[in-house]
Amino acid sequence: MTRRCRAGVTLLLLTLTTLCASAASPKRVLILDPFGRDVEPFSGTLSTFRTTLARELGEPLEFYEISLDEARFQDPEAERPFVQFLESRIANRPMDLVVTVGGSGIDFLGQHHERLFPGTPIVLIAGPPEAARTGSLAGKATQVTVTLNLAGMVEDILQLQPQTTNIAVVFGASALETATVEKCRLEFQQFTNRVAFTWLNDLPLEQMLDRCAHLPPRSFILHALFVVDAAGVPCEKNEALRRLHQVANAPLFGYFASEFGLGPIGGRLYQDTEIGAQAARAASRILRGESVGNIPVQVLPEPIPVYDWRELKRWGINESRLPPGSIVEYRQRSFWDQYGWHIAGVVAFCGLQTALIIGLLVNRAKRRQGEAAAALIADISSKFVNLPPAEVDREIEDAMRRICESLDIDLAVLWQWSEVTPDVVMPTHAYCVREELRPSEPMRQDQYPWAVEQILAGRTFTISSLEDFPAEAAVDRATCRQFGIKAGVCIPLSVGGEPPIGALGLNSLRAERDWPDALVKRLQLVAQIFANALARRRADQALRASEEKYRELHQSMRDAFVAVDLTGRIHDFNAPYQEMLGYSAEELRRLSYMDLTPERWHEMEAGIVRDQVLTRGYSDVYEKEYRRKDGTKFPVELRTFLIRDQSGQPTAMWAIVRDLTERKQTKKALGRLQRQNELILNSAAEGILGLDLQGNHLFVNPSAARMLGYQAEELLGSHSHSLWHHTRADGSPYPEEECKIYVTMATGKVHRESTEVFWRKDGTSFPVEYASTPIYEEDRLVGAVVTFEDITERRRAEEKVRQLSLAVEQGPVLVVITDLQGKIIYVNRKFSEVSGYSLAECIGQNPRILKSGESPPATYQELWACITSGNTWRGEFHNRKKNGELYWERAVISPLLDAAGKATHFVGVKEDITERKHAEAELVRQRMELARAGRITLLGQLASALAHELSQPLGAILRNAEAAEIMLQAASPDSEELRAIITDILRDDQRAGQVIDRLRSLLKQRRLETQPLELPDVIGEVFSLVQADAAARHVKLTRSAAPNLPMVSGDRIHLQQVLLNLLLNAMDAMEGCSPDQRSVQVSARQTDPTTVEVRVADHGSGIPGQSVARLFEPFFTTKPKGMGMGLAVSKTIIEAHKGKLWAENRPEGGACFCFTLPVAGGKGQVASGEGTRG
Amino acid sequence: MNFEPSTHLPLATGHSPPATVFVVDDDVSFLRSLSRLLRASGLHVIAHSSAAQFLAELRPDMNGCVITDLMMPGMDGIALQAALQNAGSPLPIIFLTGHGDIPTTVRAMRRGADDFLTKQAPKADLIAAVHRALAHNEQQRAERARLQALRQPFEKLTDREREVLRHVVQGKLNKQIAADLGIHERTVKLHRTSITTKLQVHSVAELTRLVQDAGVF
Q1: Where are the beta strands (DSSP E) in A668-779?
Q2: Does the pLDDT at position A572 exceed 80?
Q3: How far apart are alpha carbons A1072 and A1074 in whole angstroms?
Q4: How many Å apart are CA A857 and CA A319, to the nearest integer?
Q5: Is the CB of A950 inside 8 Å of chain B's CB atoms?
């Protein structure tokens, strides 16, 4: 039921209540609405309840409505204060009746009625039937309900669409809905082996809609309630249903009768309004005094299944699948659907019928002179004959007024189905004795479901009183009552046996009345007149619209157009067609297209009509000839289309025809051209081809044929693009539509191209440069001449040059080319990159722009002297960049000689060696730093201090020993003194030990600045330090590092110290060897993932056996001049690096000193900053 | 050498004390061991553990040589050498060092160090150096004695006579000398006669040779 209708009812109710207020004290009815207003379908049920009760009771009534608002608060804790509130509200107003709807309302009453409404009778609407029979409400309440057949819904779905595999269950998330869903889950269990259920009730509305828009094929949507979504957002007024219907990609199976027509396909619908009406009747009986106990619980029978024809059509569900006894509603088509393109015919028919009717009426009028009605109707019909469409509305309304006045009818309404909204009827014309009752709003057809059915079936019906409505017309009756209609007649408006376009309703508002058959028959005539007039007007409008389109089409066509019937007779054509053939319009209409076609084409064309037009509805474009009225023939090109009628039967054909005379003449003209130019063409080295507008060869010169590998005869008349232009250079297909040659044909402009290839007959291709030039004949573009050249050789040469110039341009060296005067004519990219001068800035300049003044003038003089005498100069410049920075370049400058050996240009090829120079300078600097560092490092720093400190105890020991030696030579040595000497020696020895300990601890505490080091670099640096020394001592130094040697973690200076020490030791060890044996090898390799080993091997005499163990003790030395500190310090350094230092004798002779270092980043890495600075 | 009578160090007279090796080293242990060795080698040794202590006991007639550590806290070997020279001591100095470095050595030698040895120098080198130094000292002592004998007569001359003598040995005539000194020629002659008498020479040539030998001027 629509909102509008409910609003009307409410209004009526209000009026009633107020009107009767002064009579007996009104009955008080309390409605506990568990959902709140506007929640369908319950608000509809209650609305019907209120309306029906007010009408049935006929006594003053007061409705109190309290919303239990179940959907909005579901907190049981909130119920107690609510009950108190309710109590206070009704304290001084004892209720005569309490009504509620649905399970939650019933539960509420079951709990609280004793407290709130002791002794008040209760009517329960819907809910489980046991509620009123058992429990606390037994004997206090009656109930009107229906059996909820949930499983039946699934059964119906499977009945409609047995292939259904998935059912999406769309419910809201309120307590009621959740409970219903739980019931569904239980009851649907039996179907789970046939169909999968998707439960969408726990999704918010938007997601639910999204899911419903993307359901898998063979789905159904089961929808019954939607009060509040899972996000807690209440949904009202069928909004959710409307949107669901809009987006769903599967049929919707609804449950409530009030929703029928809004989208659900139908089914055994829950009569949500009927249940309200029945409950009202029960309520009425109670209010009249009957005991509630006497009124039995009423369970409505299972309703007859109803289906929406539009939905069935939409989802392609065959009506034969509907359950037996189903009713199909909304079975109607819109006016436009039905009438389609037959408007003109209908108009003609209407005219005829009107004439007949008028004849009849006139006869009748003569026979029954006294009947004013007859006279009136005759008069009316006469007015409608040949009535201009613009006056139809006015005449109908006037006629309706006159009918009402003369027949004492209060309200006449002419309804027509809306052209826009199919299920809405519009009151297009009306007359009412009381203007304010005149309807102006559209009416939904579900307000008069029964009446609509009658109208659609073409049946007129009369109602003398509302009781005349049959039982199934309850809704119609209610609606009539709502509008105060007491009696009426309804006549379908139909034309020529077509489904009705609307209805004429004549109603009595003041009293019930009878409708004699004779009157009805006359009114039917009036309706017929109206219908015809309206149909005519609609047809007229449609015709005008269609004519407009048709005219536009005709006028816009430059090509000839002809339409023929199936026998070939011409019935329509446009001006170009007529002009083309030279016949008059009349003459053409008497001819068939065969008459216009020379014999020789008949068979071919008949074949095309048979095989193409009649079978697939249109033909390919084909060529034939036409014969003019003067007998001349001309070539045409045409395409034919088939016209079918409603039933799909072919009725006519039409064709677009183009005169080809000019095109054919073009060919002839080009033929002439060919002859004229043959000589030129034959002698040209370039390939020359003539193409017509379709791309066919008109002429071919021998060069073209040779290059393409064809005989000229093979090419003539054949299609150029498909023969030698079909594929692009990259091998991809070259569609004809994109052909560049055709650009000329389309634009009339010369087009040149040098990036494409032509294909030879043997399937090979060659790069071409071609120009296509338009050919005009008498200002008309008739084709194109393509001149082309095989550019394979040129390409090759160009490619070579390109590569060379790329090499120069993109090469890593700086290139500058000058003329003989020294003006720059070219610099390459690298030059610009390095110097900062762009090519543009350099052109015309002398290379002296780079001069910094750092290179001596003599260099330039030498350069010029060299190159001007034809030689190549090599040297280095220290130049200045654009930004002022200096840079070093190594240049090779030579003259470019021509074939005669004469210099034409100078070319300079230069290399930026700034970095190398910097690197060299850096190396020198590093060496110096290293040398300096060497002096200040440990050994250097400590040596003198140590020597002094140690010399004291050592010197003391020595002198004491010597003294003792001398004393012992005496005859009687002083033993006292000797003992003192020995004590002193022992103490001094201890002292020396302490000095050494102090030194070692000093070394250990020395902070190591560790960092990742490239060991080969360190070795290289040390080599550069000792190189001079080694050369002087005739020692050959070699070094090697394993490939992929990882970086080590170490202190650069300390490691250099160690290596320096070992190298010097090694060189010392070979002092006595012959010079050719003196060589030291340093090698580095990785021994395990975390360790790198360095070996310093010499070819000396090796380490004496007993010395190996003591080698690393401080002050142990085998060298005549050695201090004995080098190895000890080295060992300390290496151990501080968490490495090892050891010595071994090489089997092949000589010694080898080895040490290990941790790989950088490895576990053995020494943390930087370990210990404190000593 | 300047002809100036020394107030610090009167010329040695009478019998000489024995030759002594004065050892100076801050390292007591080394001092003791070196002293033992030298004594065992038959030398007379006096040990001092600092330069200051030695200088405090220095006598003009001390006879022998000094062995000193080059590097010592307070006054080091070089400073001791300077102090001895200032005091006019003729004792030769042998430097000992833990680790000889060239700049120090050069400095010491330029100032007249007799020898420069490391502390662990071979015993023979050390003993030889000591004997060389002692011999050197002896020679110097003899020379000093001879000079002292030559200079004795000059002690008798008056200041004016010494003045006149300086002019005479420069080859000046009496008249010139009289003009230079602002005295009468006769007075000059008188002084000359007194000089030759006191120095017991008979000619100007003899007088000039004596002046040169004694190194008076």
Answers
A1: 687-692, 697-700, 751-753, 757-759, 765-777
A2: yes
A3: 7
A4: 109
A5: yes
Q: Which residue has the tokens 């003398």?
A: A464
Of the pLDDT bands very low, low, confident and very high (cuts 50, 70, 90), residue A337 is: very low
Contact A525, A377 (CB under 8 A): yes
Q: Which helix (H) or strand (E) holds A16?
A: helix A3-19
Chain B interface mutation, best of A951, A968, A969, A978, highest count of B Cβ atoms under 10 Å: A951
* Four-residue CA torsion sign, A64, A70, A73, A74: positive
Whether residue A967 and residue B120 make contact (CB cut-off 8 A), yes or no, is no
B29 touching A (Cβ < 8 Å):
yes
- The structure tokens listed for A387 are 């009535």
- The predicted complex's ipTM stands at 0.73
Q: Which residues contact B63 (CB under 8 A, 6 or more apart)?
A: B16, B17, B18, B19, B20, B137, B141
Q: Are residues A120 and A94 in contact, defined by beta-carbon separation less than 8 angstroms?
A: yes
Q: What percent of chain A has pLDDT over 70?
A: 83
Q: What's the DSSP call for residue B131? A: H
- Tell me which residue of B81, B68, B90 sits closest to B19, measured CA to CA: B90
Find the CB nearest B99 among A948, A953, A984.
A948
- B97 to chain A: closest CA residue: A948
Which residues in chain B have their CB less than 8 angstroms from residue A963's CB?
Answer: 33, 36-37, 39-40
Residues 6+ apart with CB under 8 A from A114: A136
Structure token pair of residue A140: 């206090």
B127 and A CB contact within 8 Å: no
Q: Are B29 and A987 inside 8 Å of each other by CB?
A: yes
Residue window 971-1000, chain A: list those with CB within 8 Å of chain B.
977, 981, 984, 987-988, 991
State the DSSP H helix or E strand holding residue A907, giving kind and residue range, or none if neither.
Answer: strand A903-912
What is the amino acid identity at position B164? V
A966: which chain B residues are within 8 Å (Cβ-Cβ)? 37, 40-41
Chain center to CA of A736: 33
pLDDT tens-digit map of B69-96: 887 878 888 889 889 888 888 889 998 8
Degrees, nearest 5: CA angle A195-A200-A201: 125
CA atoms within 13 A on the CB side of A29: 27
Q: Establish whether the linkage from the previous residue to A41 is cis, with ω within 30° of 0.
A: yes
- B82 CA to centre of own chain: 13
Alpha-carbon gap: A918 to the closest alpha carbon of chain B (Å): 39
Interface contact B98-A947, CB threshold 8 A: yes
Q: Does B30 touch chain A (CB under 8 A)?
A: yes
Distance CA A59, CA A24 (A): 8
User: A960: nearest CA in chain B?
Assistant: B33
Tokens 């009402």 -> residue:
A404
Name the more confident of A151 and A627. Answer: A627
Q: How far apart are CA A639 and CA A618, in angstroms?
A: 7
Phi, psi of A810 (to 5 degrees): -100, 5
Chain B residue with CA closest to A964: the answer is B37
Between A and B, how many CB-CB pairs are < 8 A?
77
Between A1037 and B171, name the one with better pLDDT: A1037
The distance of Cα A624 from the centroid of its chain, to the nearest Å, equals 50
Amino acid letter for position A385: V
C-alpha–C-alpha distance, residues A1095 and A1098, integer Å: 10
Pairing of strands A141-146, A122-125: parallel
Three-class DSSP category at A590:
coil
Interatomic CA distance for residues A473 and A414, integer angstroms:
21
Distance CA A867, CA A873 (A): 6
For residue B35, the distance in angstroms to the closest alpha carbon of chain A comes to 9
Q: In this complex, do A958 and B97 lie within 8 Å of one another by their Cβ atoms?
A: no
H-helix segments, A315-371: 335-339, 343-367
